[in-house]
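Quick start: what a row looks like.
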Amino acid sequence: MSALALAWRNLIRQRRRTALMGVVVAFGFAAFALAGGFIAQSFEGLREGTIRSVGQLQAVDRRAVSTSEETTLEFGIADAARARALVARDPEVSYVLPRIDFVGLATNGTKSIPYLGVAVDPEPEAAATGARGLVTVGSYLSGDGGDGVLLGTGLASALHVRPGDRVTLMATTPDGSLNAVDGVVRGLVDVRIKELNDRYLAAGAGLVSRLLQSSGTVSKLVIFLKAGADENAASRRIASALSGAGYSVVLRGWRQLAVFYEQVKLLYVGIFGFVGAVLVVIVILSAAIVMTMAVTERTREIGTLRALGTRPSGVLRMFLAEGVAIALLGCVAGALFALLVRALLNAWGFTLPPPPGGTHGDPIHVQLYPLAYAAGLVAMVATMAIASYFPARRAARLSIVEALAHV
């Protein structure tokens, strides 16, 4: 009779012990699967949110990479319309968004609040980034933006303004003079980061160009690529085209621009690795205790098998087969349990607390991540094999006389 058949019969005979170890393995596997799915979903959401914010590529003046501007648009890209048209010719480019970053004061006539402003081309900006979805009151900018502005809800609250109210924007022009223009609040935007929400202002490029008196110059070009595009290859082609046209620019990818993404990713990987190590240790200790008890209780049985001609390696294989069989059964049960918990969590719509500095949290969502299920299977099978090996080796080394005489 094979070691697998003997192992299966022993598992059926010792139902209570088998069920106990199966539950331990099932919960360990489910923890792997659910944690992996949650972290995978978090990575995907963080990646998509980062790309929506900064684009997949950004073209900036070469000097802006190593030196900070002393005046607005000191390192801007001149003749931006021509550069934008050159970039848009690339077959893998989906959107090219010109943006101007600037700062100043917004006033309602009686109170002035500093703001962090961004000038955009409204229609392409909304199509590429989903910016319309952030508007909570009023509407998004239309056309070229006209004299409309969008304010963060925190900034609007500080200024005591609502959609339809007029505000005056003041800023320093590139030559150092102070200028002001009037705008109309079109909508209020809920920015997730509280500090930015308290200072956020967006307007059309036309209005901001009049404010800064710098028509045709932008701070950067934000580039979105088509799905499946090769970012590195597209970056090289675009950089070559702009350089050939006389633009002294550098292209940077979203990973370079969002350093926090890699930091958060490493943090999550560290947490998941620590939790996984703890789970493995718990399963190993639990399995080792149970298997040691099984060896002790079945010492005379082992002696009988040896007396009938079973070699030590056969006894070892039998116990290892029991451990692996429990691992496989537990993983199947754990997978079903993980799928059930995942469905309940996703349907529940439970919202996580906001992160530090955030204005609101996100609904919890656990992704179906096959790699986490595969990792859980490998971890549980390897864990049970290791936990079974040492008691099995001890059982295999018992002498026949000693085993038969065991009480």
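That is the whole record. The longest strand covers residues 93-107. Residues 3-50+261-404 form one domain.
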